[in-house]
Amino acid sequence: MALPSISTPKVKIVNKDLEAWIRLPALEEGEHYTIEYLHDVLRVNQITYGIDEAQLQKILDEEIYEQDVLVARGIPAVEGQDGFYEYKVNMNLEKKPKILPDGSVDYWSMYSVQSVQKDQVIAIYHPAVKGTDGTGVSGKPIAARVAREQGALRGTGFGRSEDFLTYFSLMDGKIDIENDKIRIQPIYEVSGDANLTTGSIDFTGDIVIHGSVESGVTIKATGSITIDGNVEACNLEAGKDIILRSGMVGGNKAHVRTKGNLYAKFIEYTVIQVEGDMEADVLLNCTVACRGSILIQGRTAKIIGGDVSAVKGIRATTIGNAAEMRTAVTVGVSADCISRLNLLKKKMDITKMELDKIEQGLAKFEEMEKERGVSYKEDPRRVALLRTRIQNTATLAGDEGEVKRLERMISDGANATVCVTRDVFPGVSIAIRDQVLNVKNNAKCVEFYHLNGKICTRTAED
Contacts for 219-223 with beta carbons within 8 Å, 24 or more apart? Predict the structure, then answer.
């Protein structure tokens, strides 16, 4: 049958070559479409695959005109699945204590160490699954996305099976991820108490003590320190976090130093240095220097007595007590810190000028060698210049590091505040940027901040 002259059927291919639709114009009375004609229309429009013959026949039988009808379907591509690792250990440890419904703080909910045993499976690799190409209504293939394999796990302390699918620990220890590398390292674990009988501990890695730590003991770790029991007048030093689940009574003889964060139920009569942040229920007569922020939270949370400073700010439920015990609280950075920064920058400028002069002197020796044809490498004056250059270069590098540290501190402490969500008592002094405010009267829900050279107050937000 010839194509009708009254109008041309409309054919459209949609959904990325997966569907073909046809719209037939109505014919004059007595005219009819044939199945051959519909096939011709589809062929002219390059539709050759997935044609629904039953639908074409239905169009003819029911004379479906002037409406779009789906007449061909392609087969979509089945996407492949990228390879992935299924980890069999918890790689996201809880780093913050939980607040219980009664308002108390649960320090037992925190974990600084994920332990593993030798031969324990730590990860299983699931290889990529290849996809299946589809076919469009035009007969052209629809390519499936190429599934990608993952690279082998990197790190130390673990092995893998011959088929490279199963990864397992090579030792009893703890596992963590650092810079996309898995590391399994030994841990020093004490099942009971640490005392003078067991001796002090100095360990490269993490230390976990399930009992108490008695007076006179020193505990040092390049990693974290976790102590389940009570801590007495001892020394603690860690390269990472310290967790004291049951608190510490230092008796004015204890020192705590950490390059990470410090979490404790309470700490009394202790000197504390923290590079990171600090969280506790109670601080009683402690001397604290914290590079980060201090959060004193919980049902009975308070800071009483001592000198407590934090660069980034302090948030506490209560500061001071009704007995008006002297309690000094400091946030931000002091004028001494800013003055030291300025002096260091001036010193660096002088060092750079000296280095420039040294380079000029060395250049003159090179010119003299070319002019006279004599080597000056062993000349005492040239050797002295080289030694001075090495010394000044090392000094400059050290000063640059200190300048960056001070600038970071000043930036961190720029907007530091002291926020008290319940009570602050007389006897408390608040210091911000070398301005000091002595609290004269009881106050509730107040935040102390620095503005235009003064310490001001506003209502604290819960």
Answer: 219/194, 221/188, 223/185, 223/187
Question: What are the residues whose beta carbons fall under 8 Å from the beta carbon of 31, sequence distance 6 or more?
Answer: 4
- What are the domain boundaries of the chain? 10-73, 84-94+113-185, 335-412
- Tokens read off for 18: 């997966």
Q: Which two tokens stand for residue 337?
A: 């810190």
Q: Rounded to two decimals, what is the model's pTM? A: 0.63
Query: What digits encode the pLDDT tens for the residues 14-56?
Result: 999 999 999 999 888 778 889 999 999 999 999 999 999 999 9
Tokens read off for 206: 């993490």
Q: Which amino acid, one-letter code, is at 285?
A: N
Does residue 448 contact residue 432 with C-beta atoms inside 8 Å? yes
- Contact indicator for 413, 333 with CB cutoff of 8 Å: yes
**Which pair of structure tokens corresponds to residue 126?**
């699931």
Q: What number of H helices and E strands is found in the chain?
A: 4, 34
Where in 18-65 does DSSP place strands (E)?
19-23
Distance, in Å, from the CA atom of 258 to the CA atom of 221, rounded to the nearest integer, reads 10
Buried b (16+ CB within 10 A) or exposed e, 104-113: bbebeebebb
